[in-house]
Design a protein that fits this description.
alpha+beta; Thiol Ester Dehydrase, Chain A
Length: 155
């Protein structure tokens, strides 16, 4: 069993012109790539196995990020099932001239751990201690149940 702190990571990027869209802000696909990389690192650290992205949900682009801004990607384990893991990711942009920071993107990604043959394998459980960790665990569990309900309705 592991805690969310055992596998949490923080990545940093700087938005360069080649990351920009026609509005001179970071392209959403670039942010999605950074989010996927950070979340995959968390999942792999948690289970010490290769992982694959199984689902991305609730990705919210809250505010644009300008060229030259610094981007902080914070990712941590929110929930663990038998072979799947839900990682929460928050992206915070910082104006390097003023130090002003704001949350710009949030997302939840589900990963599956793989054995040596590429098949799903059981992962260590998650020890949630703080009120925030317990809230994130419960929220991820509810999102998972809602996804299953919707999937069965849409069949």
């Amino acid at each position: 069993m592991k805690t969310p702190k055992d596998s949490a990571i923080e990545m940093r990027e700087m938005v360069m012109p080649h990351h920009a869209n026609p509005q001179n802000t970071v392209f959403g696909g670039t942010v999605m790539s950074w989010i996927d990389i950070a979340a995959a690192m968390v999942a792999a650290r948690h289970c010490n196995r290769p992982v694959v992205t199984a689902h991305i949900s609730d990705i919210d682009f809250i505010a644009p990020v300008k060229i030259g801004y610094h981007v902080h990607i914070l990712a941590s384990m929110n929930y663990v099932g038998r072979s799947s893991m839900v990682v929460g990711v928050k992206v915070v942009a910082e104006n390097p001239m003023t130090g002003e920071r704001r949350t710009t993107t949030k997302a939840y990604l589900t990963f599956v751990a793989l054995d040596d043959m590429g098949k799903p394998v059981e992962v260590p459980g998650l020890i949630v201690e703080s009120d925030d960790e317990k809230r994130r665990f419960a929220n991820a569990q509810e999102r998972s149940k809602a996804k299953k309900r919707l999937k069965s309705k849409l069949k």
